[in-house]
Amino acid sequence: MSEQRSAPAATAGGPSRAPVAPPDADRRAAARAALEAWPAATGTLPAAQEELRRRYLAHLGEPGALDRSGLPDHLTASALVLDPTGSRTLLVLHRRGGFWVQPGGHLEPADSTPRDGALRELREETGLPADAVRLSEHPADLDHHHLPSAFGRCRSHLDVAHLAVVDPGTPVTASDESDGIAWWPLDGLPDGAGGSPAVAQDLPDRLARAAAALAQRR
């Protein structure tokens, strides 16, 4: 069992200190636990998702599996955002990639779990308050995608996506990492017509799986 660390107590009259981030081994163990609990909580996974889940579990055995400064292939977290009807999705226009994609990104040291990272990234990239988001307890989708050279030393992301349900009337604001933010119908995602930015190649299938999961919950 890994050692549990707690934040140091503030001295009388002295400044309080920021909480100590969980050590790498504890964060990887938490990510493994989330992936191990997923099938029992939501039912048998499709074969392709189960294969990825097992690949992720093996990857999480390596130190640095979560950090952008660690391995060239690392775990990321994202939120597949749907409206309550499951017919619309909130996407951001990725500045570096030039495509529409779900909010998400690298885990930070203070993210104890991929779910924590997904919620933080969603709030940072959209301006949504936490109480406006219903975020699934368990993952909704996995996707391992390779990256172009524009992303530097990062060669691939093993993304863990959670389903986020949001009222489309809630105000949103794009972060400085994005060139835009918008709600799109699932049957009318941006396709790059006329040279305009298209949706990330793998995203339509991921959103369809998230919409199916939402339908099962209703």
Protein described:
This protein has 218 residues and is an alpha+beta fold. The chain has a single domain, classed as Nucleoside Triphosphate Pyrophosphohydrolase. Helix content is 28%, strand content 23%. The chain has four helices and eight strands; from the N terminus they run ααββββαββββα. Strands 1, 4, 5, 6 and 7 form a five-stranded mixed β-sheet that branches. The protein has a three-stranded antiparallel β-sheet with strand order 3-2-8, with no helix packed on it. It is globular.
Q: Give me the CATH architecture, please.
A: Alpha-Beta Complex
Mean pLDDT: 87
Radius of gyration: 18 Å
Number of discrete helical segments = 4
> How far apart, in Å, are the first and last alpha carbons?
38 Å
Q: SSE order, as H and E? A: HHEEEEHEEEEH
Poorly predicted residue ranges: 1-12
User: Do you know the CATH topology?
Assistant: Nucleoside Triphosphate Pyrophosphohydrolase
Give a quick account of the main beta sheet: strands, pairing sense, barrel closure. Answer: 5 strands, mixed
Pairing-aware structural class of the strands and helices? alpha+beta
Instruction: Report the strand count.
Output: 8
Assess the beta-strand content as a share of residues: 15-25%
CATH superfamily: Nucleoside Triphosphate Pyrophosphohydrolase
Shape: globular
Give the tally of structural domains. Answer: 1
Q: Give the helix level as a range of percent.
A: 25-40%
CATH class: Alpha Beta
Protein topology:
Elements: H1 24-42, H2 47-59, E1 73-82, E2 88-94, E3 100-101, E4 104-106, H3 114-126, E5 133-135, E6 141-146, E7 156-166, E8 178-185, H4 203-217
Parallel strand pairs: 1-7
Antiparallel strand pairs: 1-4, 2-3, 2-8, 5-7, 6-7
